[in-house]
Amino acid sequence: MKDETYAAAQHLAERVRDTMFATDKAAHALGMEVASISPGHASVTMTVREDMLNGFGICQGGLIATLADMAFAYACNSYNELTVASGFDVDLLGPGKLGDRLTASGRVVSQGSRMGVYDIEVSNQGGERIAVFRGRSYRMKGKQVVTT
Predict the structure, then answer these.
(1) Helical (H) or strand (E) element with 86
(2) What's the pLDDT band for 147 if we cut at 50, 70, 90?
(3) Which one of 13, 100, 114, 121 has the lowest number of neighbouring Cβ atoms within 10 Å?
(4) d(Cα 42, Cα 106) in Å, to the nearest integer?
(5) Which CATH superfamily hosts domain 2-139?
(6) What is the per-residue burial (b if ≥16 Cβ within 10 Å, else e) of 97-128?
(7) Other CB atoms closer than 10 Å to residue 64's CB: what's the count?
(8) What is the CB-side half-sphere exposure of residue 59 using CA atoms within 13 A?
(9) How far apart are CA 116 and CA 1, in angstroms?
(10) In the prediction, which pLDDT does 20 show?
């Protein structure tokens, strides 16, 4: 029975991903892809393009934060309860360079009935850590992302 419960939760997380991504204009504009999703977890990727570089020739920090925020959004909505950010902190640890394939991988740290905490790590294709992000979420009780 445990395997059936997990399979159902995984299927629901995938439906949430598909529903959110279909209308996620920011993700599409920035070339982001949801690489993986499971209950309480998500990974989102983005390749650093020339139009993402700042005056120093590195990826603008706000775009790295946006990538982490995207993984956060998918991870905390993976349970199919409409969830929004109530705040986050981000520390930029290294530069994203032109052509880098950045991956933001997030996981639930704590999830209560309304409030949650999620940690996201952004790394490049070489496994170098680019940023760490901690997001705080708020669930809109009784509202679902997809109807079951």
Answers:
(1) strand 83-92
(2) confident
(3) 114
(4) 5
(5) Hotdog Thioesterase (3.10.129.10)
(6) eeebebbbbbebeebeeeebebbbbbbbeeee
(7) 26
(8) 28
(9) 27
(10) 95
